[in-house]
Amino acid sequence: MREHVCGQSRDAGVPCETRVAAVSRYYFDAATGSCRAFQFSQCGGNGNNFDTLEQCEGFCLESQCPQGMGLRAGPSIATCSAAQAMGDLTAIATPDTTCPSHYSCVQPLFGSNFVCCTSSEHVCRDAVTAGTACFGAFLTIQRFHYNADRGQCEPFQYYGCNGSGNNFVTKRQCEAACQPQVKNACNGVAPLNDEGDYVQRCSENVPCPRGSWCNSKGYCCPHTETACHAPRSIGHTCLSQRPGTYWYFDSSTETCLPFAYSGCGGTPNRFADREACEAMCINKLGECPRGMAPFLTTAGTKQCTLNVGGTCPVGSSCVRSNLGEPICCTSTAQCPSGRSAYVIPGSDSFVACLPDDDNCPQGHQCMQSANVPGFYMCCTANIKRMSAVAAIRRSHGRHSPTMMASLLTSVSPSRQHSRYELAAAAPKCPSGLHSNGQRCTVNEIEGCPHGYVCLGGESIRGVCCKASPKCKKRKKPYYVGKKQVLTCGDEEAGCPRGSTCTASSIEGVDICCMTKAQPSSHGSSSSGHEKSEKPHTSFSKVPKVVPKCKDGSLPFFALGSRVPQQCTSDREDECPEEYECDMATDESELRFVWE
């Protein structure tokens, strides 16, 4: 009834038999998602006709969400991208098209725009309210709310307008939203609970804890090693969930046995029935490659045929297990924040890679997964989210669908050992510093995220290491960018005039330092080629003399080059923006920063 009324178009009515003045009324405009005023003749019309703005907003505006409350944005509910609602990773997210934390993008009950509504996990925790009486103080209807203290859905009287999101038309709707069955959450494997003993939900912006993955239904499901290798635990009693009989895997006998579960807490070694336990823990088909999880059915892990489309459900791909059996697996690894994974054309699988080999498609680079330690995958090279479809099209010439089998082979468990052996040969951070896996060019401006520095040992190519090297007492670093120090060494550029290559606060890393009385961009010391103050290391050698700009500033270095780039003064198109061609200290012409 509500959908029918609010979905009707504006109707100003028909002329009355007796002459009466038109009055101001309000109607819900489905196109804009807001209540708007109009002039009503007082005769005819339809149900989308309200005496006050409060009545219109309470009856239509606040009732667009299938469940929960909408996020108000001025006179309407905040809109979002339809692609986000459908889980389309090819859509580019912007602040105007995505919903904030605790809200989900859904199709409204009426209206043409997708809107932001309270997430289901928060709907069930909202306090119940009777709302406001917008059509008479004595007119109420029965609704249902979830009582978190009792762990059940209960009826209450609703006045018809406003109120909280903990408001359901039927008891079945309430139970479906707030009392999810463990069998439906993770295919029989018990989903993780949060600190409040509620079933933990997840999304693209709310990741799962380590040892679990976010399935397509938005539940945190434990990995095989997390569930099967954990000890049995009966948990504790609580009000949010009821006790019952569950199954656990006994590793000593390699069998699945029943036990009485108290209702909350405990370990992930908990299954709804014996079939689910045996399917995950007594697995004769083997395990998925690192970074992937098996697609489970009532019969266990789903088998498939390699290189034959349609043998695995949407969202999973057919790959070889560690035992060599073809099984359906879903990709669980995630790229670092703000980056998107490269998806193999014609599949739903990500591409594993080697951190020391540039084997990712154009526009992507090999990075360590944010949630699977030691697993490297191809992610977008820039921080801005990139369309997966565009990435596939750009790289189609390098990675066509016919190459899918070879790309999937790169994530096979049989390749894990050789991949880690090759990874050992990649540039590593000195002194045990942590790396985010990102490859870089030494001293490239903003080549690494904030808080990281590019270190390459004997090479101009290196990796981003989490470090903030500092100069010794009474000296300060020479900065080439915002909080970015200039590293130095035999394979790198020399230090600008007025600074010297000096041992930093981090062992094995040398940086350009100058006395605190000298500016960072214009040195004036007469001794610009002093020797390093510490013995040479693999990351530090006495720098060779290189030409500088006459004012002491650092010249322009082309990406990957170890020497300043030269130019001719009669050409204006050779220097990049903010640079111009001028004489250097050795009388050669090169580029320097224009200031």
TrEMBL record:
Q: Which parts of the sequence are annotated with region: Disordered? A: 520-539
Q: Which Gene3D superfamilies did the record assign?
A: Pancreatic trypsin inhibitor Kunitz domain (4.10.410.10)
Q: Which residues form the BPTI/Kunitz inhibitor domain?
A: 6-60, 124-178, 228-281
Pfam families on file: Kunitz_BPTI (PF00014), Lustrin_cystein (PF14625)
Q: Which molecular function terms from Gene Ontology are attached?
A: serine-type endopeptidase inhibitor activity
The identity of this protein, by name, is Kunitz/Bovine pancreatic trypsin inhibitor domain-containing protein
Record organism? Ditylenchus destructor
